[in-house]
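Training component of the fellowship. As part of building independent skills, the fellow (R.M.) carried out the full modelling exercise for a liganded target. The chosen ligand was nicotinamide-adenine-dinucleotide. The inputs are recorded below so that the supervisory panel can assess the work.
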Amino acid sequence: MQTVAYAVAASSQSVEAPAQDSLRSALAAQRHAFNLAPFPDLAHRKADLDRLEKVLVSHSAEIVSALSQDFGGRSEQEAVLSEVIVTLNNLRYTRRRLGRWMKPRKRHVPLELGSGRAYVLPQPLGIVGIVSPWNFPVQLSLVPLIGALAAGNRAMIKPSELSPLTSDVIRKLVAEAFPPEQVVVCPGDVDVARTFVALPFDHLVYTGSTDVGRHVMRVAADNLVPVTLELGGKSPALVAPDAVVLEAAKDIVFGKLLNAGQICISPDYALVPRALVKEFARACQQVAQQMFPEGTASGDYTSIINQRHLGRLESYLSAARASGTEIVSLFAADKISPVSRKLAPVLAIDPADDSALMQNEVFGPILSIKPYDSLDDAIAFINSRPRPLALYLFTRSSATIDRVMKRTVCGSVSINDTLVHCAVEDLPFGGVGASGMGHYHGPEGFETLSKMKPIFHRKGFRTDRFARPPFTTFKKWLISRLI
Ligand code: NAD
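Fellow's submitted model of the complex:
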């Protein structure tokens, strides 16, 4: 079905770059098709989602196996939950709500404007470009696609070159469900990505690092392409003085070790009351060892995506050790063996604020613990740094919740848990400041990828024409009454 010549050489993990012309002609074909059918009805959009659901289910085993090969070891159950089930949940939720979202929304017309009807019509934008990263390549390609199709758009997807086998499965399943003039996957390296983001899409959804996001926004600006930027950053977990330490450790360690910390909303560091640091560290060890009794040998513990990222994480740790930061292993010493690219999880106790660990997004199984003396200090620490994608708060006090929610700005929040807000489909998802802009998921996501077209329809008795020249004395008097 796919006519555009994109191919992934699976064995070498290299990617054959499509010519710039192929990308442009793929976009031209989609635009032509869109112009012929610019407003797919509800039945059509639901049928699109049905087809996507079918291929996602039928390729799920292939997805899990490709992910495991790309990572050199990725937890099967985590892959099913976070890639297949989360995506299916989003699709089914969207399909259920779609009829309601597509309805025109009635708006108020002020009396002085005379009779008529005002409404907002959600209209497809056209062609949506989607760029996705390697950490959840399926979810982060297909959830934006679900939003694009639900809003009646066509889409081109550029998946990451660092997960080539999974990108190839995505390409295959999309080609099975859709003709290329509706949805096309364009794998390729960074050069392809650069060409891709320079295309004159009607909207671009970019998920990736903050640095590349800056570049993407600059390039998109040349075509005035609106962007949704889903970026990274350092998401804090704030353990309040009244938190139950073991319960907080259970959720923070879970959030940190899922996908070996290679998650945009992974808790990056924990702010812990100074007096509770030791208890918290012990609780984290206990929880990690219960979750992964085999340590690095556990099939549920995921590898680091490649040698470059492993080297990056190891360099953060050696710099921390060299500067005297205490590093505490979460696994017992006899449960750490050199398996594939698995990096045994650790805590870094109070690394310096200017250390690599505290300056960069960790994106791996290292949790820094920053002790604090008062809740105000902890809030000030968060506010002194770029705005995070997620914030986690552990507390039993509603006054603390109110205080932290109103005094910090971040992409999204889970209270007394980590990561889960992202799976609540009815909540929008997106960063703020350095962690991104715009939303997808939920009704906000549908609106992001629609033109919410305001329409005024004049009908009924035309009292409004009194406000046109010639302005007689009577009309002047009427106008003066409007002030
Ligand atoms: P990345 O920015 O290196 O790459 C992401 C995508 O961008 C890839 O498809 C890549 O080919 C493309 N790309 C790379 N260089 C480009 C360029 N110069 N121009 C255009 N496109 C380019 O990110 P990554 O390493 O794949 O992913 C990890 C980052 O993504 C982390 O920072 C993480 O926090 C972030 N992330 C954010 C979310 C979110 O929802 N906010 C989700 C997952 C990952």
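The panel noted the following from the submitted structure. The first strand starts at residue 7 and ends at 9. The pocket of nicotinamide-adenine-dinucleotide is lined by residues 131-135, 140, 158, 160-162, 190, 193-194, 197, 207-209, 212, 215-216, 230-232, 264, 361, 363, 389, 431, 436 (CB under 6 Å).
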